[in-house]
Structure formats: structure tokens, C-alpha cells
């Protein structure tokens, strides 16, 4: 049963959830899973992805849509956002005269500025998400209750989270500065936005998760809402064959041992909510997302 | 196609596929075969760091890992900020110019987070060491950028930036001696529009910081630009071979193909493609199609399913690439190879896989 103080109840109060983690650990899969759970719980849910591969579309079983908002299921929508396009839109919006706007857009200064300025693209994506949450949606599309961002893997996990603050620090006036400051304030407000970190039960992802938690605390004075340890090998049965008897079992045994010791390390460094999900023998797609959402629901409904 | 024939091997691939470990294994193997080898790495795991004896913020950049009668292995950890600082030390005409840059607020942000700087710095450092001729072979691990292509494009992006109008505009004295913004009337209509746009978009304060930074940086630009071009040339030369690492599974095949194509289109010399950490076929695995999986708790069945899935992905990749590039499969091991012995074993497997697949 869903208790008042379950992690799931807490997550459903948020308007923005940023899903982050190292490359290939299951961010896109779990963004889809969370989306399913929220939509099933009655929330208007928007999933946003920035990765040009449009993996969310594939996982949810809808064709790539190149930027259009696609309805996947009742209350569940997905959109691919191209940061560059948002910045270009911003230029067009601010420069009402078309000729001037196209000159700015064609200028190498604009190109290099938007490509190179640290944090600018990230801040722009968040800016767009804020507008969605405030009801600036295309005609016929409801205002989302919650947006979940599948944040692409970067060298440093905090870079998506710290981007807006970085931009706001450097650019203190003008529309970009205002936008960045607004986004940074929204991301700091833990009544409205939260972070979910995905890892696997292996050394490097766990190491990076612990480092991410640390730098979130130091640089942003924040903590994740939830850490998900994904793709774990099944727990071992009580009866264990002798080593060398069954090579298949031996591999299972040693990989699960690695999972266990990494989970233990995670447990020591992270005192907040932790959910564990199995690796399932299902190809990526709606079936995998469906099965994983049942597992995750069970994990999240036990309060902690 | 064989890394043993190239003084410079660059290991590329998406994040989390095992580039760092394979770079270390390859380098160790080359050292054992008689080369004085350097492995330059980013971001190794804690245990691999211990094995290689490298740690952040240490005085010495290079650590001798192993010394054989013939050949040796040295490791170095790349640190973007330090390399950048060193570059400025070298190109700054005098102490005053150096100080102005190092204390600029914009530089602080720029060196830490400007897209491509870390990548650029890696190739810059690579160039420096390769010029020195101290090592017979260098193996370079690449940073964990999502598609690792950023790394290769970095020198070109820097040159593009230096040659773009951004620089000219930034170098123009925007502020008078009292720090007031100057009228820009004498510049053409486009220049004025762009400038007033930037003024409105980002405000004068940023422009002031940037202008200051670029002015301080100006004397360095020529050296910088020249160097970026040389680095680019080195990356494309026939001495340099790229080894592409991929995770297993059909899902990653598309990523790997995409990356292989981009590398070749851009004129880089792509060698072996390594599918890393395949679940092995073990036990009495039925070859007749996908094993059915019962309970999610059945680890044996799961591993068979994963072995089948990974083999399919590798076979697909081999179909598509196998004629032009050796595709090497490396199995998932019970433990992560982090000590010297395990790395040596992995290095042997890699060498054998490459030689077998070269036919
Ligand atoms: N629990 C699981 N069981 C089985 N397969 C899984 C599980 N979680 C993820 N996968 C599979 O692992 C692969 C990587 O997952 P996914 O694409 O979600 O990762 P990601 O973190 O978004 O990767 P990237 O960093 O490349 O965006 C996919 O093929 C996905 O279907
Ligand atoms: Mg993804």
C-alpha cells in the first residue's frame, strides 16, 4: 500500500525530475519507467530528451518525432528538444525584426557563443521546461503536472544541475541572465524539483554516483531524491554449487558478489532512499519498461 | 590496422565501455613486447589508479609502472586545467600577460567548463609528448564525452573560434579607459546589430569580462592556432591508429557504426573495433535459438539469454564491419581486470584477437 510518506508520494509532489547518471546505466529506460508510473498515478507527465538518438521514443514504442510532442499513453507525452533550436528561438523572439534576427543567427559570433558558452545550452533546455510547466504548451496539449528530463551523460554529473547557476554567475543581466537566474532558483527549490541518480552495481558507476552526491552537496547544497541501482544480477540461491562445477553459476556468483559489495559501498556513502532493480531478459522497448515499472513501484512504495 | 605498427594509438568509444582499462591493457602488452610505452589516461577507476600508481594533484605527471629488460610502461593522468595553465606559461610573452590571464574570472569558467577544452588539452599534451620522442609508443585514452567525437573535433573548433568574428569583436576595445561602453558607430551595420544584440542579451558585464580576457589572451593566439593545426595533422597522420571500443548488445551496434562512419568520414585512421564485455557462452547452452527464461531470479538462464543477446550484437557488427576492420570480442570476466596480472592477460587476448582477425 502507498503510505503517506513513501518515496513515491514524495516524488509525485515534484514538478521537475532530472534523471542523471553515467553513460549506459539505464537513464533513458528509467526515465520511461518513472513516466509510466506517474501517468498511471494520474499525473499529466512530460518526458523530455536531448539526446539526438531519441531513445525514449524507442523505449516507449513511438517513432522518432524530431521535436514534436508525441502522446504515448493517456497523460504521458514525450518530446525531443534540441538546445540549439531553443537558443535560436530566443534570438528570434528578442529581435522582432526578421532581417536582423537572421543576420544574428548567421553570424559566427552567435554560433560560437552558443556552442561554446559553458552551461548555456543546458540552461536553455531548463528554460523551455519551465515554460511548459507554466502552461506555454501548443494548442490542445495540457499543461504538464510533472516534467522528467533524461539528462545526457556528461563527464561531470553535476554539469546539468550546475549549468544554470554557472550561466547566472557569469551573465548577470539581459534576458539570458534573467532566464538562467530563474532556472537556477527553480532547481534549488526542493519543493519543486528533484534529482534521481541511476547507477549499476559496478565499480565505476557507483564511484561516480558517490562523487556526484558529494559535489551536489558541496557545490549546490542539494541531495538526490532517490538513487536507483539498476541492472543487478539476481540474488544468489541458498544452495551454492562448488566452484568449478558449473561455470555458468560461477559467473553469476562472481558478478552478483560485485553487485553486493558495490551496493554496500553505496549504502555507506548514501543514506537516502535507494531502489534496486534487476537486469531483465527483455529487449529494450515497452515490455521492458512495463516490467521494470512494476518492480520500481514495489520498491518505491515502501517508505524509507 | 594493427596497433603494433603505429606509434600512436587512440582508444575511443562511448562512456562506460571500458576504454581506460583496454588502453592500459594494450599499453602493458606493448611494453611487454619491448616498447617504451606511455599510457595517457582520464578518469581511471580507483583500483586501476592504484595499479598504475597515478593520483590527482601529484607533483610528477608520469609514473613508471613496469620496467622490463626490453620495454617499459609509464602512465600519466591527464588534467585539463594544469595543461591549460602550462600552455599559458609557455606562450605568454611576459609575466604581466600571464598574470592577467590566470586571474581573469572568465578564464576560470572557461578552462573548467568550456566545451572541448578538456578534449583539446588532451590532444595538445599528446602532441607535446609525441614530439619529445621519449616513447616508442603512446596509447591515449579519451575523455568520457558522450560520443567521444567531441574529442577529435576540439582542435578544429578552437581554430574555428579563433578565426571567427567572435574574436575580432571581442578584441575590439569596447570600453574606454574609465570602463564605459564605447559607441560602436564606426562599425558596419551588421557589426552594430550583433553587438547591440549581445548587449541586450547578455549585458555589458559579461562583455567586459570577455573583452578583458581576450585582450589578455591576444598575444597567445598565433601560437595557439598554429599548435591546434599541428595537433589536427598528427591525429590524421598515418602514424596514428584509432581503436574503437563498444559495449555489447544489439542496442549499441548502431552507436558503434555511427561512430566508425564518422571517424572515417573525418579522415581518421580506424583500426580494430573491440566489442567489450560480452557475456560468454557457458555450460550446456542450447544453440537452438533464444533460451526461454523462467523466473527473474534464475541467474543461469539470465546469463544464457545475455550471452545470446551479446553474440547477436557482435555478429551483426561483424557482418557490417568485419571486412574492413578486425572486430575483436572480449568476454566479460568474473572480476574487473584491475591488477597488473589481469591487465596483462587482457592485453594478450586483445593482441591475439587482433592478429586472428587480421587474417
Ligand atoms: N534493468 C534492465 N534490464 C535489462 N536491460 C536494461 C535494464 N536497464 C537498461 N537496460 C538496457 O540497457 C541499455 C542501456 O540503457 P539506456 O539506454 O536506458 O541507458 P542510458 O543511461 O540512457 O544510456 P546513454 O548514456 O547512452 O543515454 C538499453 O539497451 C536498455 O534497454
Ligand atoms: Mg539515454
Topology diagram in text:
The complex is a heterodimer of chains A (304) and B (359).
Chain A: H1 7-11, E1 16-21, H2 27-40, E2 45-49, H3 55-60, E3 70-73, E4 76-80, H4 83-94, H5 98-106, H6 108-116, H7 120-133, E5 146-150, H8 159-170, H9 174-188, E6 193-200, H10 203-220, E7 226-232, H11 247-269, E8 274-278, H12 286-301
Parallel strand pairs in A: 1-5, 1-6, 2-4, 2-5, 6-7, 7-8
Antiparallel strand pairs in A: 3-4
Helix pairs in contact in A: 2-12, 4-7, 7-8, 7-9, 8-9, 10-11
Chain B: E1 8-12, H1 19-32, E2 36-41, H2 46-52, E3 62-67, E4 72-77, H3 80-91, H4 95-102, H5 105-113, H6 117-132, E5 137-141, H7 149-163, H8 165-171, H9 189-217, H10 221-236, E6 240-246, H11 250-265, E7 270-278, H12 299-321, E8 327-331, H13 340-358
Parallel strand pairs in B: 1-5, 1-6, 2-4, 2-5, 6-7, 7-8
Antiparallel strand pairs in B: 3-4
Helix pairs in contact in B: 1-13, 3-6, 6-7, 6-10, 7-10, 8-9, 11-12
Bound molecules: adenosine-5'-triphosphate (ATP) and magnesium ion.
The site of adenosine-5'-triphosphate has 19 residues of chain A, from helix 2, strand 7 and helix 12.
The SSE string of chain B, one letter per element, is EHEHEEHHHHEHHHHEHEHEH
CATH architecture of chain A: 3-Layer(aba) Sandwich
| Main beta sheet of chain B | 8 strands, mixed
Structural class of chain B: alpha/beta
Average pLDDT value of chain B? 79
What is the ordering of alpha helices and beta strands of chain A? HEHEHEEHHHHEHHEHEHEH
- Name of the CATH architecture of the largest domain in chain B: 3-Layer(aba) Sandwich
Which runs of chain A of at least 5 residues are low in confidence (pLDDT < 50)? none
Tell me the span between the first and last alpha carbons of chain B: 11 Å
What is the name of the CATH topology of chain A?
A: Rossmann fold
Number of helices of chain B: 13
Question: Judging from the principal axes of the Cα atoms, what is the shape of chain A?
Answer: globular
Any low-confidence stretches of chain B, pLDDT <50, length ≥5? 183-188
Mean pLDDT of chain A: 89
Bound compounds: adenosine-5'-triphosphate, magnesium ion
CATH superfamily of chain A: P-loop containing nucleotide triphosphate hydrolases
Amino acid at each position: 500500500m502507498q503510505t503517506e510518506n513513501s518515496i513515491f508520494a514524495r516524488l509525485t509532489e515534484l514538478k521537475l525530475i532530472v534523471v542523471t547518471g553515467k553513460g549506459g546505466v539505464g537513464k533513458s529506460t528509467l526515465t520511461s519507467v518513472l513516466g509510466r508510473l506517474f501517468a498511471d498515478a494520474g499525473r499529466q507527465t512530460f518526458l523530455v530528451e536531448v539526446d539526438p538518438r531519441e531513445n525514449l521514443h524507442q523505449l516507449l514504442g513511438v517513432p522518432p518525432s524530431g521535436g514534436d510532442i508525441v502522446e504515448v499513453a493517456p497523460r504521458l507525452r514525450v518530446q525531443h528538444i534540441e538546445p540549439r533550436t531553443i537558443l535560436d528561438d530566443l534570438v528570434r523572439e528578442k529581435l522582432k525584426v526578421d532581417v536582423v534576427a537572421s543576420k544574428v543567427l548567421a553570424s559566427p559570433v552567435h554560433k560560437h557563443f552558443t556552442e561554446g558558452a559553458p552551461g548555456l545550452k543546458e540552461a536553455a533546455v531548463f528554460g523551455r521546461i519551465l515554460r511548459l510547466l507554466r502552461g506555454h504548451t501548443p494548442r490542445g496539449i495540457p499543461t504538464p503536472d510533472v516534467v522528467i528530463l533524461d539528462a545526457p551523460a556528461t563527464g561531470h554529473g553535476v554539469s546539468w544541475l550546475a549549468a544554470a547557476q554557472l550561466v547566472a554567475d557569469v551573465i548577470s543581466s539581459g534576458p539570458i541572465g534573467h532566464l538562467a537566474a530563474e532556472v537556477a532558483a527553480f532547481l534549488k527549490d526542493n519543493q519543486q524539483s528533484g534529482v534521481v541518480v541511476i547507477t549499476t552495481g559496478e565499480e565505476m558507476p557507483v564511484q561516480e554516483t558517490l562523487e556526484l552526491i558529494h559535489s551536489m552537496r558541496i557545490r549546490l547544497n542539494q541531495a538526490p531524491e532517490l538513487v536507483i541501482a539498476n541492472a543487478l544480477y539476481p540474488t544468489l540461491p541458498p544452495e551454492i554449487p562448488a566452484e568449478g562445477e558449473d561455470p555458468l553459476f560461477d559467473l553469476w556468483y562472481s558478478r552478483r558478489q560485485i553487485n553486493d559489495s558495490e551496493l554496500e559501498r553505496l549504502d555507506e556513502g548514501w543514506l537516502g532512499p535507494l531502489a534496486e532493480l534487476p537486469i531483465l531478459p527483455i529487449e529494450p522497448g515497452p515490455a521492458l519498461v512495463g516490467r521494470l515499472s512494476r518492480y520500481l513501484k514495489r520498491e518505491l512504495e515502501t517508505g524509507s | 590496422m594493427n596497433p603494433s605498427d603505429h606509434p600512436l594509438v587512440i582508444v575511443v568509444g562511448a562512456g562506460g565501455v571500458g576504454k581506460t582499462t583496454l588502453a592500459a591493457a594494450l599499453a602493458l602488452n606493448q611494453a611487454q613486447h619491448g616498447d617504451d610505452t606511455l599510457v595517457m589516461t582520464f578518469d581511471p577507476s580507483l583500483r586501476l589508479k592504484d595499479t598504475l600508481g597515478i593520483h590527482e594533484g601529484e607533483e610528477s605527471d608520469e609514473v613508471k609502472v613496469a620496467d622490463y629488460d626490453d620495454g617499459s610502461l609509464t602512465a600519466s593522468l591527464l588534467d585539463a586545467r594544469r595543461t591549460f595553465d602550462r600552455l599559458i606559461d609557455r606562450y605568454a610573452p611576459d609575466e604581466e600577460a600571464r598574470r592577467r590571464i590566470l586571474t581573469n574570472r572568465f578564464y576560470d569558467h572557461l578552462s573548467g567548463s568550456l566545451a572541448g577544452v578538456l578534449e583539446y588539452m588532451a590532444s595538445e599534451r599528446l602532441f607535446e609528448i609525441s614530439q619529445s620522442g621519449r616513447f616508442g609508443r603512446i596509447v591515449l585514452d579519451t575523455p568520457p564525452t558522450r560520443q567521444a567525437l567531441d574529442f577529435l573535433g576540439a582542435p578544429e573548433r578552437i581554430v574555428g573560434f579563433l578565426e571567427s568574428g567572435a574574436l575580432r569583436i571581442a578584441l575590439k576595445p569596447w570600453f574606454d579607459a574609465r570602463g564605459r561602453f564605447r559607441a560602436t558607430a564606426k562599425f558596419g551595420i551588421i557589426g552594430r546589430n550583433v553587438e547591440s544584440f549581445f548587449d541586450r542579451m547578455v549585458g555589458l558585464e559579461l562583455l567586459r569580462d570577455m573583452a578583458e580576457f581576450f585582450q589578455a589572451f591576444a598575444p597567445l593566439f598565433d601560437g595557439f592556432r598554429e599548435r591546434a593545426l599541428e595537433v589536427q595533422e598528427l591525429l590524421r597522420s598515418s602514424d596514428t591508429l584509432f581503436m574503437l571500443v563498444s559495449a555489447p548488445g544489439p542496442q549499441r551496434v548502431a552507436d558503434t557504426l555511427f561512430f566508425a562512419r564518422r571517424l572515417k568520414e573525418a579522415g581518421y585512421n580506424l583500426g580494430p573495433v573491440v566489442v567489450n564485455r560480452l557475456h560468454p557462452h557457458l555450460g550446456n547452452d542450447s544453440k537452438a535459438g533464444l533460451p526461454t527464461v523462467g523466473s527473474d531470479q534464475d541467474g543461469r538462464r539470465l546469463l544464457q539469454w545475455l550471452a545470446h543477446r551479446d553474440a547477436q550484437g557482435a555478429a551483426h557488427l561483424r557482418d557490417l564491419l568485419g571486412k574492413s576492420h578486425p572486430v575483436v570480442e572480449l568476454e566479460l570476466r568474473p572480476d574487473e581486470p584491475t591488477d597488473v596480472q589481469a591487465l596483462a592477460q587482457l592485453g594478450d587476448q586483445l593482441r591475439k584477437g587482433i592478429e586472428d582477425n587480421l587474417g
